[in-house]
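To fix ideas, we reproduce below one chain and its tokenised fold.
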Amino acid sequence: MTDSSPNSPRTIDRRNLVKGAAWSVPVIALVTAAPFASASTVGNFSVDGSCAVLGLIGPGFVVTAGAQPLPIGTRIDIVGQGGVNIGVFSVTGGTASVNVLSQSASRITLTAPLAANQTLALRSTLSVSVAFRFTATATLPTGFTAGPTAKPSGSVSTLLVLCSAD
């Protein structure tokens, strides 16, 4: 028994101690698991423009994963400027779906992770004899963040057969 006067020392019986310990285990487990639920960093991936090779490959982009894989659901939106039809994009080096949004826009979505340090080539069927500019921007799925020096966008442009890419 305990004395309820304000100046008497409190004692804790064994039953209350066991109840308190039992409640603390799930709380401690939740607190220690919380860091794993935070955003995952995919590293310093890059999206780079790539010029065409006349008669062999069309203009497009090379997406390179960083030290960690790019996750399923990563989107690469490609927009064309200059009033030309950007053509159909092909995908090599990975697994992705290609959706034509309009004559001047396409969306490529990874349907499987792009392994660490691997590349995904996105090539258009557009002829290099047409003046154009493409811009590609990668968007990571919710819960993922890019590394501090990631390059999530790139561009490629031509003026007749002169090409510039970044």
In short: The first helix runs from residue 14 to 33. Residues 27-37 have pLDDT under 50 and may be disordered.
